[in-house]
Amino acid sequence: MSFSVSHHLLLCATSCNGACCDPSIGLATWTRLKRILKDFDLENLERPGGVVLRSKVDCLRICSDGPILLIWPDGIWYGGVTPERVDVIVREHLIGRTPIEKWILRRTPQAQ
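^ thats the sequence. predicted structure below, dont judge the formating
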């Protein structure tokens, strides 16, 4: 089966033993991220705009301001991501194509 990928979301939600964020917030954010992607049918492999992939990762090596959400290929790193913020990020950034500047920690766009 062939499909295209719109975005890949990497959520650092395990907190490096609590050094970066509260593990309960990381887990709640991961749970909410899975739900909202399903609610908007963004994980559909046949989606015309491409599927949105998600991965829960152990560490993105920022180690502050977590949970951290990295969105590829945009190279946008969001900090302090909560279940409430992840809703807004999916709606405004992924669907609306407008990054939320006040929550961005850094940008690492792909080289063209």
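The mean pLDDT is 90.
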